[in-house]
Amino acid sequence: MKAFVQDRYGGPEVLALRTVDDPVPGPGEVLVRVRASSLNAADWHLMRGDPYVVRALDRTTFGWRAPKRPIRGRDLAGVVAALGPGVTDLAVGDEVVGEVLAEGAFAELVAAPADVLARKPADLPFEQAAALPLAGTTALTGLREARLAAGDRLLVNGASGGVGTFAVQLAAALGAEVTAVCSARNADQARALGAVHVVDYARSDFAASGQRYDVVLDLVGNRSLADLRRVLTADGALLLSGGGTSQGGSLFGPMRLFAVAGVRARFVRPQRLLAFRAEPSAAMVADLLAMVAAGTLRPVIDRTYPLADLPEAMRYLEEDHAAAKVVITV
Asked: Model pTM?
C-alpha cells in the first residue's frame, strides 16, 4: 500500500510517500480501506516530537529521534476490507468512522480496533465523517466533564479550530451562551455556528474584559492560568485541552499550563481546573453522528487535499492557522 512515513522528527518535509507492507489486522481489529482522514494538532506534535519533554515522558509513543510508529494520522473514514480474529460486530464492506490511537490513517489501509469504529451513515460523505472523531470527541468530552447546561456562559479560546468549531455548536445546541475567541476573519463563521459573542483576539483581551463565565474551554494554551481563572465564576470550570500553536519546537508547550493547573486545582475549589483527555470511543462517535443526522452539528471543513499532498496540508495546518478541519482524501 501507499503510506506517508517519517524516519525522523521535523517539519512537513520529513513526511515521505512510500510503498509499505499492508497491515494485518490482529485479534479484535479490522482492516479498513481509508477513504478520508483529517489532520489534528496531535499529528504535528508527533511529527515534530514537540514539546521535547514528551520524548522522555511518553516512551510508548515518542522515540528520541523519531516517533515509535512511522505513519501519522488518527482520524479515519473508510470501508472494512478484512476482519481480524474475534470480530463479529462488523462485516466486510461496512462503512465506518473512528479514531485510531495507534495512528496509521495517512495511508491506503489501516488496522484499527473494531471497538473504536462506528458505522458511517450512507448519506454522510467520507470527508465529513473523517472530520468528526478526534475533534468532535474532544469537544463533547470536555463539555460533559464541565457539566455545561442550558443558560451557562461558555468562553471558547480557539473557537475557529477543529475542536473549537464543534464546541461552539455543541454548547449552542445545549442552550449555553457562547463567546468565541478567534481572529476577525473567522468571526462570521463563529456566529453562524452559534456563538452569541465574538472576541477578536487581535483587538481585545478577553482576560481584561471584566466578563465572567461558568465554563472556559482553552484550546490554545497561550494564556496564563491566572488569566484564565480571572474570567471564571467563583464555582466555574476551566477546561484545558490546548494543543498549542506550532512554533517549530518547544520544551514544554502547553504541558507547563497543564502542570501548573494540576498543582493548583486542589487549592482553588469550588473552581474546577480540568486538564482532560478524550479517548477514542465508538459510542462518542455514534453520538456525534446522531447529532449530524439531526442537523444540530455539522463538520466544518476548511480545505481538502489528496493523500499525495499531505506535507502541504500539514504545512497549511501549522503555518496558516486553518479555520476548522483540514481533510485528506485517499
From this structure: 0.93
